[in-house]
Amino acid sequence: MKRTAERVLGIIGLVLFVIGGGLFAIVSVMQQSGALEDSFEEWIQAAEEQGQTMTDEEKEGFEIAAEYPYGTYALASFLAAVAGLVAVIIVSKKSVASGVLFLVMIVIYGLMVGLWMFLLSFLPILMYLIAGIISLVRRAPKDPVSLQE
């Protein structure tokens, strides 16, 4: 069986995880160099200069966002991409193993990044979820029975 749907969904999810992982890696580098916190402070100052007042909760939100473990998010995204690549490669020969790999990677990704980032990564997770379910549920067609007259 060709398993085109599973491949396409897996590749789309893989690409989205690589893009997300790259963005998380960039933010992680900014965080390690202190540039992320500086950017947040500049945004706060610019808002105050324009006459917008920021509440303490909003300022605290910026501080919390500056402390997120973006390196872990990047690692989780790249692991999900690698697992997706393996699943896409083996889907034709071992569809059940491929489906299990897609679904297990969703769980591992969710455990690594937590609920908030899990929800932000909705689209690649949805691609993996659909590909995993299709891989497990869809069976190869049986040989047609020939009618002898």
Automatic annotation (TrEMBL):
* Chain ranges of the DUF4064 domain: 2-110
Sequence intervals crossing the membrane: 7-30, 70-92, 99-119
Keyword Ligase belongs to the record: no
> Which domain of life does the protein's organism represent?
Bacteria
Q: Which UniProt keywords apply?
A: Membrane, Transmembrane, Transmembrane helix
Task: Give the coiled coil ranges.
Answer: none
Official protein name in the record: DUF4064 domain-containing protein
